[in-house]
Fold this sequence. Notes:
Structural class: alpha+beta
Number of domains: 2
CATH class of the largest domain: Alpha Beta
Strand order of the largest sheet: 4-11-5-10-9-8-7-6
Amino acid sequence: MTSQGEIVRGLQERAARALPAERVEDAGGWWLRHAPRCSWWIGSVLPHRGAEPDELVRRVAGAEAFYALHGGVARFQISPGVCPRGLDALLAARGYRRESPMSLRAAPTARVMDRLPAGPTRVDVADRLSREWFDGWLVVHGPGDPQAEWDVLARVEQRCGYARARIGDEVVAVGRVVVDAGWAGVFGLATLARARRNGAARGVLAALAGWAGVHGGDHLYLQVEPGNVPAVRLYERAGFTELCAYHYRNT
C-alpha cells in the first residue's frame, strides 16, 4: 500500500516535471534545480531522500555549492514526511528563513467533474502549446520574462491541455493541466481581476478536469497558497482535500 509520504513525494516530483528547470541534477535523491530567469520556486531543491545527521550537513553544503557554481542561492522545499528529519531545523540554524506556506491538494477527477457543471463562460482546451494561448496567459498573469516562461512550458515532456475562457473575444481566464502517470496537475489557473466572480475560473477548472479524464488523469492535484481565500474556496467546492502543507526555506 502506498504511504501518504510516497504519494506526496510522487506528486511534488510530477509538479517539478510540469514546471521543468533548465538543469536538474539528481544528488542521491535530492533534486538540485537550476532555473535562471524563472520564478524562484522552479529552481528550489527537492530533498526527497533521507540522510543521517552528519550526512545531512554534507548534503546541504553540496546543494549550496551547486547553486553558488551556477551563480544563485539554494532554496529548499520542505514537506513533512517527505524530507529528511532534522532538515528544517538545520536550515533554520544556518540562517534560512521559513517562507511561502503552500497546500498540496488532490481530488478524483470524476468528483471534480460532478461538482463543477459547465457554466455560461465559453472555454476551449487545446492539446498543444501555442503562441495564441501563451499570449492570453501573459495578459492574465501579468508582467514577467515572456521568453523564460515560454521556455519552461516548451520543456514539458508530458501530455498537456491548455484552457482559455472567453467573454466575447477577450481571454479572461487561463489554466493548463499536465498528465503524468495517472495523475493530472493543474497549473497557472488565473482570472483577470475585472472578470472575477462570473464563473470563469470554475469553467476553466471544469474543462481541464474533463480533458484530464479523457487523457488518463484519473486524479487531479494542485498547489495553492492557503492565504488565497477565493482559490481555496473554489478548490474545496470542487472536492479537493489537502494532502500536505509545506513551505520553503530561503536565505
